[in-house]
Amino acid sequence: MNPSLIDTPALSRRGLLKFSLGASAFLATVGLGVSLSGCSPSQPAAGLIALRDSDLPFLRSVIPVMLEGAVTPERIPAATDETLKSLDNGLAHLSPAMLKLTHQLFDVLTLGITRGPLTGVWGTWENASADDIRQFLARWENSSLDLLRQGHSSLLQLVMMAWYSRPESWARCGYPGPPKI
């Protein structure tokens, strides 16, 4: 008889608590290091509510790759800007704790000392090719580390929810929009 997923040690309550504690410690250490180094100001970028200047190069590089196939190539630049606005608005409505975790995820992805080893992108995000970004996303999606898979899932959900919450995205996927009341 095969054990169920609930019976496996990797998914036990103790295992989950250990993982959560380790992930929190890792993100807190990176976040503390970033904040002490002054590399990542907590102030929002000009004209935005929650996204910081340090987050924008990463997001402007990753969003077009994530939207491939959902947006026509000529609409990618506009769709990227629209997605950033929606993402910023969505982040502004998160609880302070969730916003802090999201900022920590972005810090890990933008800080040079963690970006290279964790993503395989050793240069700046602006200089990363679409293939480099696809490889990073695949690396995190298929990682043996739960933390990286969760980071991929969080990033994917944030970007997709930001894009598909916009009326411009609805026609291409066949959604007529919410009913008019």
Describe this structure in words.
This is Twin-arginine translocation pathway signal protein. InterPro entries: TAT_signal. It comes from Pseudomonas zanjanensis. With 181 residues, the chain is mainly α. The protein has one domain. It is 61% helix and 0% strand. The protein has 8 helices and no strands. It has helices at residues 13-37, 56-66, 76-92, 96-110, 112-119, 130-141, 146-164, 167-170. The termini are far apart. The model has no long low-confidence stretch (mean pLDDT 85).
The structural domain count equals 1
Largest sheet descriptor: none
Strand content: under 5%
Overall geometric form: globular
Task: Estimate the helix proportion, in percent.
Answer: 55-70%
Overall structural class, as computed from helix and strand content, comes to mainly alpha
Organism: Pseudomonas zanjanensis
Protein name: Twin-arginine translocation pathway signal protein
